[in-house]
Amino acid sequence: xxxxxxxxxxxxxxxxxxxxxxxxxxxxxxxxxxxxxxxxxxxxxxxxxxxxxxxxxxxxxxxxxxxxxxxxxxxxxxxxxxxxxxxxxxxxxxxxxxxxxxxxxxxxxxxxxxxxxxxxxxxxxxxxxxxxxxxxxxxxxxxxxxxxxxxxxxxxxxxxxxxxxxxxxxxxxxxxxxxxxxxxxxxxxxxxxxxxxxxxxxxxxxxxx
Length: 209
Known about the structure:
- This protein is mainly alpha-helical.
- Helices cover 67% and strands 0% of the residues.
- It has one domain.
- 20% of the residues are buried.
């Protein structure tokens, strides 16, 4: 799924922010992990922030697989935060890194799978709406009038209730399309991103368009 210009601009600013986060030395990271293992929750934020760039770099490998880069980063950051917050390991740095990588990778793969499932449902619905439109036109020409839902259901070989639902969705889509001109100006300045966003904590960033 391709990102919009606005999303790309936000991602670029986010990446600059996480790249500017001071990276921990191996000794500092090992100390924080050990303190976390001993129950010191005050180190959670430092550990999470130190891994944000790593999550973004991991997300690069899953780009162009159906989920926007921004959404991948968000899913990865959630997984990262959960792993660190719920950590109950023995403080071994390598085991900690493996735990983070596994959780973030799983988050990416689940996001891609969920999007693929959603796309399949959307395509199936689109096919049904197209069939409804074609059937309506054909029966209207044949009958000389707009067909009843029961007639459409019989012709399409689906329950009448499903036809009613499809008709409602079709009307909703038409309504949205008619009103879309009201929001055209929202994207007219997609290259202008609020400068205040750069002052936010990277974990609070939203990549939604």
